[in-house]
């Protein structure tokens, strides 16, 4: 899904990567199906819109051996891309979709996903969330085979690698699972993939489980999920986050395991194998999915993201208590942690900021002036709740430090007596090379200022972060996964990357 940073030293220095969402659906039972698969995929993508707001695409197949897929892609929000005419042309029995963030340079139609390539066995489509840590080496291998690439996208690189290696197939059908395993042997992370052949979808999660991927099933209307058998399932779905299942009436089944290859067909879901990590290496699920990126109602490791954020707030009070009158948050991703902080401290939670919900995230805007204007457009202070109060304001993270300062000024102008900032994640100090949009190391304010200096810089009475240990404890507090089978990538916080990056 990404423009590879490996294309040059300058890109490698920036750490500018992307965050995306993938979704797939296969109608169960007899085809042609009565289910509107394209509509299911579109609604699934809308539920993943927080993961990408610059472009989106859907590819569908009739599953009857035709040599063409139905494709519609475009720039902008999903609701603006897929009108009635587009949806009519996307009719099929299975389909995959993608929604994307990008850097400004890569925000072009040519990079919209899913990608479609035409092979000797027919078309193949792929959507990707993540970034290949060894993209340069893999690109050189593809070029050495005489294959040209039309984009700098890792996702196109993946499709060409799948088509090249290993050669051959099984009768009229290529050994796509074998090719997928070969790809996974060539590149350990980071990716969650949905790959559509003529009549089935493969879901792939890298061996470290860095990027999320989960399975669900669409049941008949009014069916009891507990008693419903697989023969009653109307469709199987796969998604970056389980939050997308609720919007289509699907039930969450489970997460795709790290290294697992699953196959979704009209006959059901099966596991085709699990690619192991090197001995002794733990999983490395991106811990920032809990902190910021995922929707609060998504489920990882048997717990909602909301419950983890609330526990992070509790841990934050235990580590950094403060005398205050009220607890509030920078809405909305800081709200769950603020409730946890309030409950643990015994202080009342009060909303002090009114959010304009029609303004996008300032985190991904490329210009400092635009980010500051974004804050002014995004929030208003509730003066009656603020005047004369000592406020603890909970934020989920601080990246450049540019957006919190105008918020503090807003609260002081509304009459706040004190404003204490508590951050429900550790300081961000390192770029991510696995698919998250994090600025350059030089832009990350935690590399320039410690907590006290940053408090003075943004105009707060105090500022403290949650520790890395506290965050990991919060994540593991309600996890249903055994600790020895779980592990988290904290590279952006600690600089400890799951694999070496000098490939």
TrEMBL record:
Keywords: 4Fe-4S, Glutamine amidotransferase, Glycosyltransferase, Iron, Iron-sulfur, Magnesium, Metal-binding, Purine biosynthesis, Transferase. Transmembrane segments: none annotated. Gene3D superfamilies: 3.40.50.2020, Glutamine Phosphoribosylpyrophosphate, subunit 1, domain 1. The active site is at residue 20. Pathway: Purine metabolism; IMP biosynthesis via de novo pathway; N(1)-(5-phospho-D-ribosyl)glycinamide from 5-phospho-alpha-D-ribose 1-diphosphate: step 1/2. It catalyses: 5-phospho-beta-D-ribosylamine + L-glutamate + diphosphate = 5-phospho-alpha-D-ribose 1-diphosphate + L-glutamine + H2O. It is an enzyme of class 2 (transferase). Mg(2+) binds at residues 333, 395-396. Its cofactor is [4Fe-4S] cluster; Mg(2+). CDD domains: GPATase_N (cd00715), PRTases_typeI (cd06223). Residues 20-267 form the Glutamine amidotransferase type-2 domain. One of its GO terms (biological process) is purine nucleotide biosynthetic process. Pfam families: GATase_6, Pribosyltran. It comes from the Eukaryota. Its EC number is 2.4.2.14. PANTHER family: AMIDOPHOSPHORIBOSYLTRANSFERASE. In the C-terminal section; belongs to the purine/pyrimidine phosphoribosyltransferase family. This is Amidophosphoribosyltransferase. It comes from Megalurothrips usitatus (bean blossom thrips).
